[in-house]
Amino acid sequence: MSNPVNPSVLLSLPGRVALITGGSRGIGAAAVRLFRQAGAKVAFSYLTHKAKAHALAAECGGDENCIALRQELATAEDGQALVAATIAAFGRLDCLIVNHGIWPPHDQPIASMTAAQWRTTLGVNLDSVFGLVQSAVAQMQQQPQLDGANARGHIVLVSSTAGQRGEAFHADYAASKGALISLTKSLSSELAPKGILANCVAPGWVRTDMSAAAFQHPETSKKVLAAIPLGRPARPEEIAGPILFLCTPLAGFISGEIFNVNGGAVLVG
Fold first, then answer.
1. Where do the domains of the chain lie, and which CATH numbers do they carry?
2. SS3 helix, strand, coil % of the chain, rounded to 5?
3. Which among 44, 46, 103, 173 is annotated as catalytic?
4. What is the pTM assigned to this prediction?
5. In sequence order, which ranges of the chain are alpha helices (DSSP H)?
6. Which value, to the nearest 10 degrees, does the dihedral of the CA atoms of residues 229, 231, 235, 238 take?
7. Cβ atoms within 10 A of the Cβ of 50, count?
8. Catalytic annotation on 46?
9. What confidence tens digit (pLDDT) does each residue in 126-184 have?
């Protein structure tokens, strides 16, 4: 009888270079660890959590394999600078994971939302993404394709269920995340013929620092959990796993997809 186990069926990315934004904690940190375990070299950005970021980089192999880059991401130019720093460190870029973002935790009715809040949220959640994607695509198109690679490059944008169904009192956040979904589809239509696959992961509630205040509030927590068929928020690793999968050869025929990872809470594409 033949052995049904095939050790070559692995979620592995040897020789690849990945850039993960917002990588010092939460989903980003889980993705940094997972991409390193898959054999990729990883650059990741952080803004304020310097000690955590550098500890994570050391844990994941140090300067030759994993680097933490302090970079504000509020403008297109910020995104371009981060891609340039990654290429300077590792010589190429194969996977761009856009994970960073802000969610103003206070409820803000649209009638009283300030223009400053709107501009800040869209600057971080959308404008910087343009710079990241624009520079990453330019690099992916000009660099030699690695032997055995199924694509010239992979782009994974992290959106949210808020981008699919909206979110009352958080119109700025929902608008920015909805834009990432449309951007994913536009990028796929443009870039798939060139061998660059663009996809989107749309998480629901995840137990991270950003969501901690909501889960510490008994009424809010009860309401949130009641809307999730699995009855709990995701762990960061449960979002990082689908992100990694979308950058592997096993996902070589997936492009323009909105990959829902929300415990069954939102059943849309």
1. 17-261 (3.40.50.720)
2. 45, 15, 40
3. 173
4. 0.91
5. 26-37, 50-59, 76-90, 115-122, 128-142, 162-165, 171-191, 212-216, 218-226, 236-245
6. -20
7. 12
8. no
9. 999 999 999 999 999 999 998 777 899 999 999 998 999 889 999 999 999 999 999 99
